[in-house]
Amino acid sequence: MTSITSHHPARLRRSVLSVPAINPRALEKTHGLSCDAVIFDLEDSVAVEKKAEARENLRRFFAETPLRGRESIIRVNGIDTEFFSDDMAAVIACRPDAVLLPKVDGPDDVQRVADLIAETDATESLRIWAMIETPRGVLNAAAIAGAGRTAGGLLDCFVVGLNDLRKETGVAPETGRIYLVPFLMQVILAARAYGLDAIDSVSNEFRQLDAYEAECAQGRAMGFDGKMLIHPAQIDGANRHFGFSEAALAEAKAIAAAFADPATDGLNVINLDGRMVERLHLEQAERLLAKARVIAEREGRTA
Ligand SMILES: CC(C)(COP(=O)(O)OP(=O)(O)OC[C@H]1O[C@@H](n2cnc3c(N)ncnc32)[C@H](O)[C@@H]1OP(=O)(O)O)[C@@H](O)C(=O)NCCC(=O)NCCSC(=O)C[C@H](O)C(=O)O
Ligand SMILES: [Mg+2]
């Protein structure tokens, strides 16, 4: 693979909202929210004595009122915990689009889960997402991303977890995430090297929307595809920052139109209004336009 083309070029993952599976009211609310994807959490937001009840909530939710038109992901407890096998049974029963593994330390974690899925009839539809949130996870990010290939191509997306990473490393929550940026960039690079998407970490302060918006802008500039969220108030900001401006859309259309002109047949590089544009830019433009079409479709208009 030589480009950053992902498995699913037109898949939207701007806003990925986490919802505690123990909270029926919040589960119900997901139907009216404009996030691109929902993570149904069985891990940290569910108390130990409530795990079984949370799984039951999910079984009911997926059977009776499943999410439509958006990706659904279930976050299970860690593979070495006592909850994992019951969580995976719930995942297989619910049939979300993906299972999110927390605290992935190395490629073996992904392989173990891929082997488990291979024993079921969910291989066609169920993908694996991995949380990169431990020091080993960050150090092994490239090997983990590469494991996607041996694990039947099921690995699809990385999600960064800075709460755990701060806890494990002692890095302070400084403005601008200054000391965390090297870790974040390493995760993005590893994801891109193997065609995975990468989702930025949650921001805990869900009432401080100015700081949150700045963090979204930073995440977008770093190359993340979207942000994991904890509260509905964070959805609009993520959709805006990880979406496209009118200017970017117009530029993508101009690039696509230029290369569609027969006059550019056989040319790899052209002059577009005083700027060099290559066919690699056409790939980027087409990816942007495909995502823009999905957004427009969802909003009931034409791109
Ligand atoms: C943080 C919260 C506990 C705050 O909840 P609450 O006190 O209810 O907030 P509000 O009163 O402002 O809520 C307003 C209404 O919005 C609904 N709501 C709130 N959060 C959600 C949600 N996540 N999904 C759907 N709906 C939500 C409330 O029910 C209110 O509705 P209404 O009654 O009609 O007014 C809460 O936001 C929350 O639990 N958030 C998610 C927590 C979570 O999922 N944690 C795990 C993910 S974080 C993570 O993964 C960290 C990572 O691992 C790492 O290491 O970094
Ligand atoms: Mg975590």
TrEMBL record:
Gene Ontology biological process = oxaloacetate metabolic process
The Swiss-Prot or TrEMBL record lists the needed cofactor(s) as: Mg(2+)
Q: Which residues bind substrate?
A: R75, E133
From the UniProt record, which GO molecular function terms apply?
lyase activity; magnesium ion binding
The record places domain HpcH/HpaI aldolase/citrate lyase at 14-232
The record's Pfam families line, in alphabetical order, gives:
HpcH_HpaI
Q: Which domain of life is it from?
A: Bacteria
State the UniProt keywords alphabetically: Lyase, Magnesium, Metal-binding
Q: Where does Mg(2+) bind?
A: E133, D164
Magnesium among keywords: yes
Tell me its family.
Belongs to the HpcH/HpaI aldolase family.
**What protein am I looking at?**
CoA ester lyase
Q: Which organism is it from?
A: Rhizobium terricola
Q: What is the lineage of its organism?
A: Bacteria, Pseudomonadati, Pseudomonadota, Alphaproteobacteria, Hyphomicrobiales
